[in-house]
Specification:
This protein has 14 helices and four strands. The protein is mainly α. A four-stranded mixed β-sheet has the order 2-1-3-4, with helices on both faces. It is elongated.
């Protein structure tokens, strides 16, 4: 780069810095938007079922039934409500006041004291299939624990011959927030990175400042670099703030290297900014640019990245589409770095995919950019 070109680029970078300082909307997109979305989704989205309203129906109350139903009151997963009849409990389920019914028939105590099985009736609202499976598993676990504790108190062997001692790797608390928050960072920063370049350039088209640049001696490469460098730094600042929120506010463990996280985040940010530059080549209106950014970046990242929905469970055609979503690769990297550590068999291929996507988007943005008004 010649001396004149360097001076022009430095002047453009100074112009962008002053523009960011005088118009804080870019700062809001880089820092405020990710923080607000991360707080909303982090606290509002959960795959755990807690405080589930459950109806308890005991046809013949006694010491044994009180012991078993008392376990529901001490469980963080249930919020028990007592009903006198199964009909009343079923009406409450139909009205969505409870999500499950636990029914102890009149012979519950007799069969339990006789040493045989004392089955319980469980009716689960299956409208939400995921919640239904979780509730069913929670009830079965509570039932098995109660049987084991009762057998131990009576000095006899537990009724279950097989003793299972599960080990949960990478997320021992089985907290869905530890799994969701890293994915949220990828999804939110996809939108943020695209908006940083798409909206800002569209705003300059509306204000006429880009038209003024067109009559100067600056080249289109210098214009794109002047847009890319400041907003890359802003985007990385927003990424750092999002990681800090995840670690210090949500308590998500960071098992991997900060340097690996920084390097892969830089690749992802280049891909996101490239998408924004590409959008800005077609949309010269802020509203249109924002709509295109949401439709082409945020929604695919939310649905097709594996953040919430398992990619392996998708149809083959949809699985093929996920390969063009940059967030898919970044979600895999973040979940590995946060929860498992520097697993290179996961990090390297996904980082390579991000580098390829960044080159493609930036290349397409350069190919579509023209120093002319038409």
């Amino acid at each position: 780069m010649s001396g004149a070109a360097s001076r022009r680029l430095i002047g453009l970078l100074r112009k962008e810095t002053l523009q960011i300082w005088r118009d804080p909307s870019a700062l809001a997109i880089a820092f405020l938007l990710p923080a607000v979305l991360l707080l909303i989704f982090g606290y509002g989205v959960s795959l755990d079922a807690r405080n589930v309203p459950v109806a308890l129906v005991v046809q013949r109350p006694g010491a044994l039934s009180a012991s078993f139903t008392g376990a529901f009151a001490h469980s963080p997963f249930f919020r028990p409500r007592r009903f006198l009849t199964i009909q009343a409990a079923e009406r409450a389920m139909a009205a969505r006041r409870v999500q499950a019914i636990v029914w102890l028939t009149s012979d519950f105590a007799r069969r339990a004291q006789a040493g045989g099985d004392a089955p319980i009736g469980v009716i689960v609202n299956g409208v939400d299939a995921n919640d239904a499976r979780l509730i069913e598993g929670y009830v079965q676990q509570l039932w098995a624990n109660w049987l084991t504790q009762r057998a131990t108190a009576q000095g006899r062997a537990p009724p279950i011959a097989l003793s299972v001692q599960p080990q949960v790797r990478f997320n021992p608390a089985v907290d869905s927030r530890d799994y969701l928050v890293p994915g949220l960072i990828a999804v939110i920063m996809t939108l943020t990175g695209a908006l940083l370049t798409a909206l800002v350039i569209a705003r300059e088209w509306e204000r006429g400042t880009l038209e003024a640049l067109m009559v100067t001696r600056v080249t289109i490469n210098e214009v794109l670099l002047a847009k890319l460098i400041p907003y890359f730094l802003l985007g990385m600042g927003g990424m750092g703030a999002s990681v800090a929120i995840a670690v210090f506010l949500f308590g998500v463990p960071l098992e991997g290297s900060v340097w690996v996280l920084t390097a892969t985040s830089a690749l992802f940010m280049l891909a996101a900014l490239g998408m924004g530059l590409l959008i800005s080549g077609f949309a010269r209106n802020q509203f249109v640019a924002g709509q295109i950014a949401i439709i082409t970046t945020f929604l695919p990242a939310f649905i097709l990245s594996g953040f919430v929905f398992d990619i392996n469970a998708m149809p083959a055609v949809v699985r093929l589409l996920t390969h063009v979503v940059a967030a898919r690769y970044f979600v895999a990297i973040l979940q590995s770095v946060f929860l498992a550590g520097d697993v290179w068999s996961v990090i390297l291929p996904n980082a390579l995919a991000l580098a390829v996507m960044a080159a493609i988007f930036l290349g397409l943005a350069r190919a579509t950019a023209r120093k002319r008004l038409d």
